[in-house]
Design goal:
- It is built from seven helices and no strands.
């Protein structure tokens, strides 16, 4: 196989994968279940997360299944169309599917985030390594989400503690102010009390 023929087959697989990826399952599901475009729902992102959040789990799982199937179909088509490339056909077909899903030409290049498509492509191209990468990515997302919740809880606790400290300082300041006022009155009345004591002592003498 000449390098020109190899380049042609790679471009063919990339283009075919792109066309497969341009099929946005979220758009079909949104129109069938909600009667509107996915761009009019929630964040407007035509992806599984947006549909799952606003249209429920069945619709979200349909989008997930569609994204997985279209990526697998793109890889299978390229495998059949360019057998000379062998395993490399999956590489270019899956890459095209990711590009088509994220930047579909018919939707003003506004597509989904490509999480399901990327994971499917990685697992098909490198089953063990791809699966491990997807698991590691999912674990990292969960840990970061848990860390964010912990930070928010810590922030709320710190805020409450600061409020309590301000309240204690306020009440302490009020008590100190009352003590200062009492001491001031005591000091102001001291000459009068001293004069009364001396007058009584003079009477006793």
């Amino acid at each position: 196989m000449s390098w020109q023929h190899g380049l042609f087959l790679r471009v063919l697989c990339l283009g075919a994968g792109y066309l497969f990826g341009c099929f946005l399952t979220a758009e079909i599901v949104a129109r069938c279940t909600a009667g509107c475009s996915a761009r009019e729902i929630g964040t407007g992102n035509p992806g599984m997360a947006n549909i799952l959040t606003h249209l429920g789990k069945p619709a979200g799982f349909l989008v997930l299944a569609g994204d997985v199937l279209k990526t697998a179909a793109a890889c299978w088509f390229c495998w059949q169309a360019a057998p000379e490339l062998g395993h490399t056909a999956l590489l270019y077909g899956g890459l095209g599917a990711v590009l088509g899903h994220n930047w579909p030409f018919w939707n003003k290049f506004r597509g989904g985030k490509g999480v399901a498509v990327n994971c499917t492509w990685l697992i098909l191209y490198l089953p063990i390594t791809g699966a491990l990468c997807c698991l590691a990515g999912g674990a990292a997302v969960r840990l970061s989400a848990a860390g964010g919740r912990a930070d928010r809880s810590t922030g709320r606790a710190g805020g409450l503690a600061a409020i309590r400290r301000r309240e204690r300082f306020y009440h302490g300041s009020k008590r100190l102010h009352h003590a200062d006022a009492a001491l001031g009155r005591f000091t102001a009345d001291a000459p009068g009390r001293g004069a009364a004591v001396f007058s009584q002592m003079a009477l006793l003498v």
